[in-house]
């Protein structure tokens, strides 16, 4: 064996992780389901900020590839419907959770994780951090992370299992962005959205979203699982993706670092 054997073994472990995740992503009982086409590992050290609505760069997606993301949950009445729609099509998504809601509905958070979805972070109470003092913003972020980690693992740590974060309202400050990057937490924006914070029918939302996707052709899509109109619209949107040959990409963090990794 040439080169550094530890580096070689670590690279092999990462490759095996990605291969296993890809295999899991393609498993589906329904042959005509949309499915999840591939898994994309997002490393905060190389992709600290993604999403063209907020930043100059986004994820390396091909034409007709989309990443489905949901904000502001969990909310039992609607999140359960969203999860069913995703399960029916064997699709995996990323949920940016409000810490307070996660602490009130921990069983729903664990259900999301058990179904293979990526669990990410969205503050404690959805406060706009642009208008908060840096120390208050840090508390809002950490309290949210701790609540989600407690729901998932019964451990109130501020070191997130999945180091993905999205700012409420996409409102950021240079100080908070820098703090998150130093902590190794990737900040997600979005490439397109359904504007589902506005009241509309599921049919109107579907039309708006598909028209935007026709123009963009790919990207990180922002939706909100607590919105009843989005939960009602989602099955039709997933069918649209299938019928129009879009492919769903599931984003995950890198595997945990080994002792050898940390020692280098």
UniProtKB/TrEMBL annotation:
Parts of the chain that traverse the membrane: none
Domain of life: Bacteria
UniProt entry keywords in alphabetical sequence: Hydrolase, Metal-binding, Signal
One GO BP: carbohydrate metabolic process
Ranges in a coiled coil: none
GO molecular function: hydrolase activity, acting on carbon-nitrogen (but not peptide) bonds; metal ion binding
Domain NodB homology: 64-249
SUPFAM superfamilies per the UniProt record, alphabetical: Glycoside hydrolase/deacetylase
CC terms in the record's Gene Ontology section: membrane
InterPro entries, per the entry: Glyco_hydro/deAcase_b/a-brl, NODB_dom, Polysacc_deacetylase_ArnD
Signal peptide (UniProt feature, chain positions): 1-25
Similarity comment: Belongs to the polysaccharide deacetylase family.
Reported function: Is involved in generating a small heat-stable compound (Nod), an acylated oligomer of N-acetylglucosamine, that stimulates mitosis in various plant protoplasts.
PANTHER family referenced in this protein's UniProt entry, alphabetically: CHITIN DEACETYLASE 1-RELATED, GLYCOSYL TRANSFERASE-RELATED
Protein name: Chitooligosaccharide deacetylase
Organism phylogeny: Bacteria, Pseudomonadati, Pseudomonadota, Alphaproteobacteria, Hyphomicrobiales
């Amino acid at each position: 064996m040439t080169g550094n054997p530890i580096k070689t073994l670590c690279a092999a472990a990462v490759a095996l992780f990605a291969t296993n995740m890809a295999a899991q992503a393609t498993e589906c009982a329904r042959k005509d389901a949309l499915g999840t086409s591939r898994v994309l590992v997002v490393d905060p050290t190389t992709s600290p900020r993604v999403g063209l609505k907020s930043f100059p760069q986004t994820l390396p997606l091909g034409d007709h590839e989309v990443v489905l993301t949901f904000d502001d949950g969990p909310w039992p009445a609607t999140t359960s419907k969203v999860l069913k729609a995703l399960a029916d099509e064997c699709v995996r998504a990323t949920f940016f959770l409000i810490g307070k809601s996660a602490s009130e509905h921990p069983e729903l958070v664990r259900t999301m994780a058990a179904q293979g979805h990526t669990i990410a972070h969205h503050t404690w109470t959805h406060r706009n951090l642009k208008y908060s003092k840096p120390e208050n913003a840090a508390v809002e972020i950490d309290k949210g992370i701790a609540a989600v980690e407690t729901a998932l693992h019964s451990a109130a740590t501020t070191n997130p299992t999945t180091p993905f974060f999205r700012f409420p309202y996409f409102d950021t400050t240079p100080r908070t962005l820098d703090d998150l990057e130093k902590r190794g937490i990737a900040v997600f924006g979005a490439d397109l959205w359904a504007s589902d914070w506005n009241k509309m029918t599921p049919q109107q939302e579907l039309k708006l979203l598909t028209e935007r996707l026709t123009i963009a052709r790919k990207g990180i899509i922002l939706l909100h699982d607590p919105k009843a109109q989005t939960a009602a619209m989602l099955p039709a949107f997933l069918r649209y993706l299938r019928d129009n040959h879009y492919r769903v990409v599931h984003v995950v963090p890198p595997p945990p670092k080994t002792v050898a990794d940390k020692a280098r």
